[in-house]
Amino acid sequence: MNRQNNQHELIVSGIHLELTPSLKTFVSEKVDRLFRHEERIVRIRVELECDTKQSVDNRFIAKGHVSIHGPDLNATVAADECHKAVSLLIDKLDRMLERRNSLNKVKRNHPHPVELDAELPKVV
Q1: What is the residue extent of each domain of the chain?
Q2: What is the pTM of this model?
Q3: To the nearest 10°, the Cα dihedral for 43, 91, 74, 69?
Q4: Sign, CA torsion 27/30/36/41
Q5: 9-105 maps to which CATH number?
Q6: What is the pLDDT of residues 51-108, one digit of tens each?
């Protein structure tokens, strides 16, 4: 499921779960929030898993992998409904992107001094 401008890529996969078209569009609409939030995202992979051996409260597991310039972001959320797990996952990834963005701003606004051992040539 590629976006219209082909800069971002969204991959949705199901593990022990059949993906319905409504579920795919739900994930796509939710992930658009992340793409608007950060323009440097290359790819987002969302894996939805239904584990029948888990308790009812943690039956659906949503995993998100955000490929971005720099270190990638990974998050996992478990819930009792698939749509709820997707919503919680997108909220968690959104918070992670906001935190990363604020840390980059702090580093950019407060640079650390660098000491050079070698002497610089004089300008004539």
Answers
A1: 9-105
A2: 0.76
A3: 40
A4: negative
A5: 3.30.160.100
A6: 888 788 888 999 999 998 888 999 999 999 999 999 999 999 999 998 888 777 666 6
